Amino acid sequence: MRRVLILGGGFGGLAAAHHLRAKLDHKDEIILADQRAHFMVGFRQTWALVGASTMDEGLRPLAALERKGIHFIHAPITQLDPDARAATIDGKSFQADAIIIALGAELASEKIPGFASHAINFYDRVNIPRAADALRDFTGARLAIGIFGAPYKCPPAPYELALLTRDFFARQGKAIEMDVFTPQPMSLPVLGQASCSVIENRLSASGINFMPNLKAASVEKNAVVFANGKREFDLLLGVPPHRVPAVIAQSGLTNGGDWIKINPRTTETKFANVYAVGDVVEILTANGKPLPKAGVFAEAMARVAAERIIATFENRMPTAQFDGAGGCFLEVGNGEAMMVQGEFLAEPAPRVSLTDPSEKYLADKRAFEAERLRAWLE
Description:
Strand order of the largest sheet: 5-2-1-9-21
Shape: globular
Distance between the termini: 27 Å
Strand content: 25-35%
Number of strands: 25
Structural class: alpha/beta
Largest sheet: 5 strands, parallel
Radius of gyration: 21 Å
CATH architecture of the largest domain: 3-Layer(bba) Sandwich
């Protein structure tokens, strides 16, 4: 019997677990550990925030993996020794023949003084009810949506929230001033200036102020502090800086950097039979920009890692490679969405495009969620 240990129950962990279970011998053990009890596709938080749906409709218990022949441990991973292929989970040590690390990125609000006191972190699902209440009861004049660091998960999400929030207030007949600020030079740098202009022009047409190249230093009561001044707000919804989980930072996998370094094609780390996928890794595209941290890429990387583990177990030469193809949805309101799609690891530069908005892409977005919930946890 062989054992594969999967750390993390997001897109990457779930995709890897199911791919392995479908192809390995039933005697081989697949263990997935996560401190969270449920999986949810991240964009459902935005729907819940603006009252379009609820989080409960998209939550599924990870314990459902047990019915599919995958052992789930609901507990934090407190120690990782990649050289020994061992991890401590809930006080117990587990050693494995292969490990897939899919722990994602953690939110680090404490890196911005005043953020926790004066902003609502809408990337944390725990805060969504509070954020939804704040929007529903909003009587102020100025709403700010702020990106406080890069890279961050699901890059279109803050712009999607801005457009859907504008729709939300329009339905209520409320006229408010809205800002969206980012430390980056444009909305989605990996897209290039032409496509970013499409997004930024749509924000402008909706009466939303887009403010690039603004790195926040701190947050005060009703004001964000930048190097060159302040911007006032009555409500601030923020994306805090991201970082690797502490157990990863302490493991030696980051080589002193911010994220796990992997072979971008094979997802291998510097440790034998230890793979890392998804938001916890850093992959640079040919033009030096980071691959977006998105579930679709975590899923694709996970299948590559799983396929290479299977080949190794079967004494075959692993050939599976991550090609960087994928896309993200950007909902724009009025029942429509755009699609950011392309070949992100293409040479000599990513080939990425932004579609026109359509009802079809919003339907595809809903199907994207439904298909994964059904395949993985139902």
